[in-house]
Amino acid sequence: QVQLLESGGGLVQAGGSLRLSCAASRHTFSSYAMGWFRQAPGKEREFVAGISRWSGGSTYYADSVKGRFTISRDNAKNTVYLQMISLKPEDTAVYYCAADGTPSDRVVITTTEYDYWGQGTQVTVSS
C-alpha cells in the first residue's frame, strides 16, 4: 500500500506559478512510475504529466501544459513535484498525484493503470 499526500495548491493570478508536491509513504517510491492528473468541475479526470520510475529518465506531458509544467522526482525524499508556470484560468482544477507499481520503464498516462491516488489539492487561477 502506498499513501500519497499532495500539497502546494492555492489561489494564484493568471501568469503566476505554483509548485505542487506529492509525498509518498513507501521507501520503495523509486520503483513507482508517478503521474499528475487534474479534474475540473463537471469534467473527467485528465492526464497532466507523468514520469518513469527509478531516475525518472522519461517524462510525458499533455499538450495543454507542455512547455509550462515540469514534472520531477526526488527519490531521496519520496516526493514527486509539478512545477507550473504561466498559469491560465483553464488550469483551475483539483490536482491529483498517482503511483503505478508495474515493473515497466514507460511513462503511464491512463488513469486506469495507476494503483494509488492522493486526495488532491485545489489549484485556482484567477483571470
List keywords for this structure.
single chain, 127 residues, mainly beta, 7-stranded mixed sheet, 4-stranded antiparallel sheet, 0% helix, globular
Can you put this structure into words, describing what you see?
This protein has 127 residues and is an all-beta fold. Helices cover 0% and strands 46% of the residues. The chain has no helices and eleven strands. The chain has strands at 4-7, 10-13, 18-24, 33-39, 46-51, 59-61, 69-74, 79-84, 93-100, 116-117, 121-126. Strands 2, 4, 5, 6, 9, 10 and 11 form a seven-stranded mixed β-sheet that branches. It has a four-stranded antiparallel β-sheet with strand order 1-3-8-7, with no helix packed on it. A hairpin with a 6-residue loop joins strand 4 and strand 5 (46-51). The protein starts with a strand and ends with a strand. The model has no long low-confidence stretch (mean pLDDT 95).
What would you say about this model in short?
With 127 residues, the protein is an all-beta fold. The protein contains no helices and eleven strands. The strands form two sheets. Strands 2, 4, 5, 6, 9, 10 and 11 form a seven-stranded mixed sheet that branches. A four-stranded antiparallel sheet has the order 1-3-8-7, with no helix packed on it.
